[in-house]
Structure of CDP-diacylglycerol--serine O-phosphatidyltransferase:
Amino acid sequence: MSSSSTTGFKKFDSAIASDSEMDESESARPQPPLRRSSSLFSLTSKEDLPKPDESEYIHFIDDERHFSLIRNLHMADFITLLNGFSGFYSIISCLRYTLTGKSNYVQRAHFFIVLGIFFDFFDGKVARLRNKSSLMGQELDSLADLISFGVSPATIAFAIGFQTTVDVLILAFWVLCGLTRLARFNISTNNIPKDHTGKTKYFEGLPIPTNLFWVGVMAFLVYKDWIHQDLPLGTVLQGTSFEFHLLSIGLFIQGCGEISKSLKIPKP
């Protein structure tokens, strides 16, 4: 197999050139991040991690060992899976709340979403500490985020009273917007303009973790016991097939912000 026939990995050709041979545009072109030794300083680095090279990709595809999938996971990947677990357990807690009516279960659902945020933040730190990127890392991260910050918050919203037909359709729209936002990120992240360190300059649309704003709102509603029939602002079109809670409009707007292409949020 020739090197030109394998994979879609970018290669950076090295060349020796004098200052007179390099024009201004070439000298200003962002260079691929260098592989740094693992250290605590890498935790605060804003550089992208070194990408897996072609040989790692081929090894992953051709690995025929038993449990090869598990063997090829990195430490950061296991932390990402804990993010997915947190989102799943939040959903289970919501189901227990709907079965028992005990508010401690819905409070637990909020807690596990917050725990998911911790794992979502920590997996990147571990990857930088070890100075290793994973072939499956980005995909796992997106899927875990969908569970923890997409499906789980929508499940909480349903459990505390957003249960009319229109409410459920809006919740579905909210989740699907998060899903498409994550898919677009995986496709377009390499094409978003980057600064001199190789870090993308902005988010295209609201990142799905911004759904935590509504998680906080719902946690406050649970704390005040403003749920079910006592949800603030009440419903409109009562007694019809189009009845819905006014608060659900906020979830609809949030979803629109996630799929927006014109909304560009600078990265800190």
Q: What stands out?
A: Residues 103-130 form the longest helix (28 residues). The chain has a mean pLDDT of 78. The CA atoms of residues 34 and 50 lie 7 Å apart. The radius of gyration is 22 Å.
